[in-house]
């Protein structure tokens, strides 16, 4: 999305992420029932994370910030599950820090800082390596139900079993960033546990987020079958996280 003019982050922007640690919800999938009955194969995120979403730090980033919010959720998992926790006051980068880092590493031009340009899975992998020292595996999944069921589901299952960290999903026709927290397969197909960063508004209780579908099991069949998807998977086990 093209920029509508540089953002004035304000003098206190750098402190917003720190201040919100006491108000952001942790582990928003807790208590959500399985989407299927009977025998299932289920693999979930392991450890704590914070749920970042549109506007959660006072910055109205609707329409462009979903990828940034998913990166923040992933970064919070990395920091909360390191032992000992590294610099607990800096548990996730701010939107401005993400933009400046991408400029510093040469991935984006200087005009990217202060813009409303969105980021995808590739930028997410760069950010987590640069700021959190965690490499990522990026998996490309071609469009179509068979590819999603056979490739994406199995990649996700292996990831959650080995690494246990949240995953970012994005595509071309379906370019809305999704935070993935689990996968479940049974006789009626496979489901993805999605933490949707597009929620905007007052803070809700975990059960209300789940009731409204912002944190929910989504059938793989509900994904855009004509869109390709990329998965950004932090390789946390390799870093001893």
Task: Explain what you see.
Helices cover 28% and strands 17% of the residues. The protein is of the alpha+beta class. Strands 1, 2, 3, 4, 5, 6 and 7 form a seven-stranded antiparallel sheet that branches. The mean pLDDT is 89.
List the helices and strands and how they pair.
Elements: H1 13-19, E1 41-44, H2 66-80, H3 95-104, H4 121-132, E2 136-141, H5 145-162, E3 167-171, E4 178-186, E5 189-195, H6 206-211, E6 215-219, E7 229-234
Antiparallel strand pairs: 1-4, 2-7, 3-4, 3-7, 4-5, 5-6
Helix pairs in contact: 2-4
Computed structural class: alpha+beta
Distance between the termini: 34 Å
Secondary structure: number of strands: 7
Q: Beta-sheet strand percentage?
A: 15-25%
Helicity range: 25-40%
Listing every helix as H and every strand as E from the N terminus to the C terminus, the arrangement reads HEHHHEHEEEHEE
Mean pLDDT: 89
Rg of Cα set:
17 Å
The biggest sheet, with number of strands, parallel, antiparallel or mixed sense and barrel status, is: 7 strands, antiparallel
Please give the oligomerization state of what you see: single chain
**3D shape:** globular
Number of helices: 6
Question: What brief labels describe this structure?
Answer:
241 residues; alpha+beta; seven-stranded antiparallel beta sheet; 6 helices; 7 strands
């Amino acid at each position: 999305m093209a920029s509508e003019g540089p953002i004035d982050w304000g003098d206190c922007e750098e402190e917003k992420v720190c201040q919100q640690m006491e108000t952001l919800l942790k582990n928003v999938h807790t208590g959500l029932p399985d989407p299927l009955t009977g025998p299932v194969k289920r693999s979930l995120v392991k450890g704590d994370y914070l749920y970042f979403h549109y506007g959660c730090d006072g910055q109205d980033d609707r329409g462009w910030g979903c990828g940034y919010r998913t990166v923040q959720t992933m970064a919070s998992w990395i920091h909360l599950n390191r032992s000992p926790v590294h610099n607990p006051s800096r548990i996730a980068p701010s939107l401005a820090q993400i933009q400046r880092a991408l400029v510093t590493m040469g991935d984006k031009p200087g005009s990217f800082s202060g813009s409303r340009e969105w980021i995808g899975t590739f930028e997410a992998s760069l950010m987590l390596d640069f700021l959190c020292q965690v490499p990522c595996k990026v998996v490309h999944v071609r469009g179509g139900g068979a590819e999603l069921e056979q490739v994406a589901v199995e990649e996700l299952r292996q990831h959650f079993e080995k690494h246990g960290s949240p995953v970012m999903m994005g595509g071309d026709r379906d370019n809305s960033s999704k935070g993935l927290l689990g996968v479940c397969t049974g006789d009626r197909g496979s489901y993805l546990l999605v933490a949707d960063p597009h929620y905007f508004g007052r803070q809700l209780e975990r059960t209300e987020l789940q009731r409204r579908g912002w944190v929910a099991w989504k059938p793989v069949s509900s994904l855009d079958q004509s869109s390709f998807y990329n998965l950004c998977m932090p390789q946390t086990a390799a870093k001893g996280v």
